[in-house]
Write a structure and sequence with these properties.
Blueprint lengths: L21 H10 L6 E3 L12 H4 L2 H13 L8 E3 L4 H9 L5 E6 H5 L4 E3 L13 E10 L4 E5 L7
Parallel strand pairs: 1-2
Antiparallel strand pairs: 3-5, 4-6, 5-6
């Protein structure tokens, strides 16, 4: 099911936050009746993010809200798998033609000007994420072992 969501309409869908956490996206997709899988290495807000400039002003408020969303996820019908996902697993999903992946990555990797990510780069970013950023992984080239991505911040599509 394809859905176009305009940013100014997110509040109408229940998403009013300025910092969007992955669990916020899960609740939004659930509210829009879009089938999805949610895989994460951290159940709840990672308190280590308080060291990051991007999060420092809002994290104390977000920790309570985000942790509550995780705690209530099952009753909201959201299944969360706590594990990492490797590039080869993502490649299989993409190559099936049935899936598109929204991934949280380290903005630093994208700032290198790469439009293709190789499997050797962790899709979820290194253990300490400099600045989290969502991308869409929409293709995979098995010959070059690269993912095709769409970066919402980029003017190139």
């Amino acid at each position: 099911m394809a859905a176009t969501i305009h940013c100014n309409g997110l509040a109408n869908k229940g998403l009013k936050e300025t910092v969007i956490w992955t669990v916020d996206l899960a609740y939004l997709l659930q509210k829009l009746s879009i089938s999805f899988s949610y895989i994460t290495v951290t159940l709840g807000a990672n308190p280590n993010f308080s060291l990051e400039t991007f999060y420092e002003k809002q994290l104390s408020d977000d920790i309570v809200r985000v942790d509550m969303l995780f705690q209530r996820s099952q009753e909201a019908g959201i299944d969360i798998e706590c594990r990492s996902i490797k590039g080869d697993e993502i490649a299989i999903l993409i190559l099936s033609g049935k899936y598109t992946v929204i991934a949280l990555v380290d903005q630093y990797i994208l700032s290198l000007g790469q439009r293709m990510l190789t499997c050797q780069i962790s899709i979820v970013g290194p253990p300490v994420i400099r600045v989290s950023h969502y991308i869409v992984i929409c293709g995979y080239d098995a010959l070059t072992d690269e993912f095709e991505i769409r970066d919402p911040r980029s003017r190139q599509h």
